[in-house]
Amino acid sequence: MRRPSGALWSHPDFLKLWTGQSISELGSQVSQLAIPWLAAVGLHASPLAFSLLGVLGFLPFILFALPAGVWVDRLRRRPVLIVGDCARAVLLALIPILWAAGVLQIWHLLVLEFVIGIFTVFFDVAYQSYLPALIEREHLIDGNSKLQLTVSIAQIGGPSLSGGLIAAITAPYAILFDAVSFAISSVFMIGMKHRENLPRQDAAEPRPKMWPQVKEGLAWVVGNRNLRAIAGCTGTSNFCSSLMFAIVILYMVRVLHLSSLEAGAVFAVGSAGSIVGALLANRLGKGLGVGTAIVLTAVIFSFGGLAYPLAPKSFPLPVLMAGQVLFGFSAVAYNILQVSYRQAITPERLQGRMNAAMRWIVWGTIPLGTLVGGAIAQATSLHAALWVGAVLGTPTFLWVLLSPLRAIREMPEPVEPPTPAQAELEGGLVEGTPLPAPSAADA
Q1: Is residue 319 included in any domain, yes or no?
Q2: Residues 223 and 292 in one domain
Q3: Quick one: 83 and 218 in the same domain?
Q4: Which of 8, 109, 122, 246 is the most exposed place for a label (fewest CB within 10 A)?
């Protein structure tokens, strides 16, 4: 089926994907508060068990992202998305069922959080890999902007909705809202008309093994100068921001003496900045050029973290809000632009492994930054930890500024590297050696 070439507002399959994801994003915001609330209040979880809840939800991205990328490149991606949504709907629905039966325990919640995380890994990798097959390359920034816009809106309205549902029907039954939202999302995707073709496989060739394909995806990211710069910039920023955000709530409460309402207002304003970033990302890419827009937004979020340690104790809200707005705006616009660029430059057969490798690299720094932030705060002070994160984060933009990425104006065509088998035949690849890095012109 030929993909529509008009605006995305007249693209029925994209609109179905966007609608379904908007609903499920709102539902996910409910669970993000309701599940920890259930653990803390309903199940009286210990501090260790409560912390494990977050760790087990994140751990699948480290353990399964790379093999998920291989499977996503071997399979049709839309069925992976449908199965991911349906499975999460069923798993989330088990929580209120077990609660109503009077048998729910904290270990149930921990196991469910881990298994839900596994399906989320496959969905997330397939989701970013499916969009370039669904819409035209020139619409990637617009498509990612629309999808990110509803995420930002859900981050503003979701916590209030979750709080209201918890107060009205209690946390276990509030989670049903998220289960239903995943089911609705899957219905929209089932109704999509677009069909993918499976990657071509020569019947005479043996089925490729998992590890060589994982290495090929990693080599594509690490061997490409622009993708390597994006990974370095994003991973470094994630490390520094997680270092700060690991203790920023404690700093707001214990040092700045902010109320919960004031702290919530800071983050709500930041979400408003995210909406602006989602709305303007496409215009920035067209007006400044894709590469320049990525560098500019990286510069802004690199310095945005300084607002936290610089906020005066006597009246911190204006500085905190300004910093959060700048960070929310620039981080969302940067993510839309760089994800769209990655999708545009990567061949179809490598989309899943590229997204998996990138996610494994840039999210692998988050738990490390969280641990470092807590350790610095414990050894020195909360304020000192914020300064360390903010100062380390300021040169983050140099990764992309010093790369050929800054010279790119338009979305490029995909660069097709040789497969490992082709490279071996041509004498261009020794086992364990990355693929040659494309030149700046290739990028």
Answers
A1: yes
A2: yes
A3: no
A4: 8
Q: Which domain holds residue 344?
A: 210-411+418-433
Please give the Cα distance from 249 to 31 (Å, whole number). 20
Question: Is 244 found in the same domain as 301?
Answer: yes
Indicate if 108 and 52 belong to the same structural domain.
Answer: yes
- Identify which of 367, 373, 362 has the alpha carbon closest to the alpha carbon of residue 228: 362
Of 181, 200, 219, the position where a domain reaches its end is: 200
Tens of pLDDT along 3-33?
A: 444 578 888 999 999 999 999 988 988 888 7
- Residue 10 belongs to some domain of the structure: yes
Model pLDDT, residue 147: 87
- Residues 154 and 308: their CA atoms lie apart, in Å, by 25
Contact 20, 195 (CB under 8 A): no
pLDDT at 266: 82
Instruction: Write out pLDDT tens, residues 196-252.
Output: 766 655 544 566 777 778 888 888 898 999 999 999 999 999 999 988 887 787 788
In terms of domains, do 291 and 195 share one?
Answer: no
164 confidence band (pLDDT: 50, 70, 90): confident
The pLDDT assigned to 430 comes to 33
Q: State yes or no: pLDDT of 367 exceeds 90.
A: no
CATH number reported for the structural domain that contains residue 128 in this entry: 1.20.1250.20
What tokens does 75 get? 């399979």
Least confidently predicted of 140-154, 191-205, 208-222, 266-280: 191-205
